[in-house]
Description:
alpha/beta; Rossmann fold; 7-stranded mixed β-sheet; globular; binds S-adenosylmethionine
Amino acid sequence: MNRNSLKRAIQNLYRQSQQIYAERVLDQIGNRLDAIEGWISYEKARKLSSTHEAVNSNAPETLTSKDFWELNTVVGSRVFEESEDSLDALQHRFLNYPGYRELMDMGDLSGKTFVDYGCGPGHDLIHESLKSENVKIIGMDISKSALSIARERVKLHGLDVSLVEVEEDQRIPLESGTVDAILCTGVLMCSENPTKLLEEFRRILKDTGFIKLMVYNKSSLWYHLYCGYVLGIGESVYSDLSTEEIFARSTDGLDIPVNRCWTPEEVVEMAETAGLECEFLGAAPSVFEMEIAIRRFEALRYTSLNSTHREFLSNILVREDGVPYSRDGAVAGIDACFKLNIPEKRTGQMRGPNLGSGSASLSGLEN
Length: 367
Ligand SMILES: C[S@@+](CC[C@H](N)C(=O)[O-])C[C@H]1O[C@@H](n2cnc3c(N)ncnc32)[C@H](O)[C@@H]1O
């Protein structure tokens, strides 16, 4: 073998070894894309936050809720150029949570005063104002950046909406008994004092008014499978954290200061403590939960899976349309939806938690 062919052989070997190495790396990465995406968003938040001198890699909890939500609007830094673009984003949100739209429908709000509390970039401001006529709409949020996206967006649709910046743990700047309908979706579990916020809702609500509430559901695949198994054990992203701690980091951003999930029973109890009657309407899954539902079998193979997650996952079935539900009939999705109102004055007995139609049986088929 001459010098040149030896050189070519070495180059070939080198290329092959590079390829083998790359394939191995890709294999290892394979199922860890979620973890990598998580870290990318963490690094992004950390870089942005460093300008606020509010966060460092060891102490993410030093961010306040307001700081966090200034940096993390639900549509990122997206600017809506056309009204079609805005409607497309709204549609995308509905498609990603099958059943959510129906559960959270506010009905006809024509002639009513409607508050979207924690309106974010204004999905529901747009949705509700396009559905009804002559509604007095007020969007409230603690994040200036979310409100400015909402402001530009309502302009695109030519809508008349008041947007109000509120502060964590403070009185809502509205008179008592003046609001017909309140929507609060994806907010209460991030609030420092959720019972106090519900009491504020009760104060501003008319006697005949109602609230629609969506909070993160503990009785979900997100909590028991994604946090309890995938992130905790399967991908070992957070093997040293409790499922609650993993959950807090898994939805809106890694350094969110307050984030929890509750069972429907816990929400009903909390609402009753705040003087509100509360009915669990049901839950909607994210398409992500539908996609990973199959991994419950992998989770059940692990002896280290804790017994609560094991029991929950062994009772999960999947409907023909892909929606996961538990044997008691409740959809095992992350969005738990409720209707609340001021109880009629009566001298009845104390009632137990009202789990309403949320766990009504489903005509589902197992996969
Ligand atoms: C997950 S986003 C949901 C946004 C919107 N409701 C939606 O469903 O698209 C949570 C929103 O609640 C706001 N938020 C968080 N804590 C709040 C509080 N205590 N009072 C008012 N808004 C709050 C955040 O700024 C953010 O816009």
